[in-house]
Amino acid sequence: MAVVPFLDGQEYFGIHFDLGPGEIVAGSLVCAGSALIPDLDAKSSTITNTYGIFTRGLSALFNWMFDGHRNGTHSLLFAGLMGALTQALALWSPMAVQIFVFLLLGIAFNGLGLGSDKNSVASAVINAMATGAVTLALFTAGVDYTWIGLAVAFGCLLHFGGDMATELGVPLMWPVSKYRVGQNIGFTTDGKVERNLVTPALTISIVLLTLYLFPWPELLPEV
């Protein structure tokens, strides 16, 4: 949502961005799902375990292709590749994009902990129902996904930004260089700093951006 003021009404790389409320909602959710894609290289990650054997197979493939956990999948090359492949998908088939959005929303909701941890079946059903409802609502609203490649690439970059603040760092220039930006100077993943400072700060920022960007009076029905 932070980049909406820089995109709305502008044209980049031959793509004109006309972002209404539907596009802002869809873009935010697509970014949220895409921000988990780099962790497909890890066996225990949320995204790896979202769609069972399908994502576990992709995880094994990504781990092999990109030199293990937090290497190639955490590079600028990877972000650009994911964005380009998604944009090509959008140009190839609008239906394929709808399916991809559905999958990304499911990943995003799973990452947010939607459902019950005590009952995996109930959790999966709740996730699927919520994902299907939101995807159908966006489709009915006629959301234009010509920007989806940029949203996916930006989601990956957001992931890199978060990981650069951790002690392991990120090899942004892989495979040219394996130097890790932020290594040994950041906080521990899932430590006190992340739980008590980073997560609340991000949550508050998202709420404030939502209040700033959405034309709430225009969305309310007339009395």
From TrEMBL:
Listed GO MF terms: hydrolase activity
Residues in coiled coil: none
Keywords carried by this UniProt record: Hydrolase, Membrane, Transmembrane, Transmembrane helix
InterPro entries named among the record's database cross-references: YdjM-like
Residues that span the membrane, as ranges: 89-109, 121-141, 147-176, 197-214
Signal peptide annotation: none
Highest rank taxon of the organism: Bacteria
Name the record gives this protein: Hydrolase
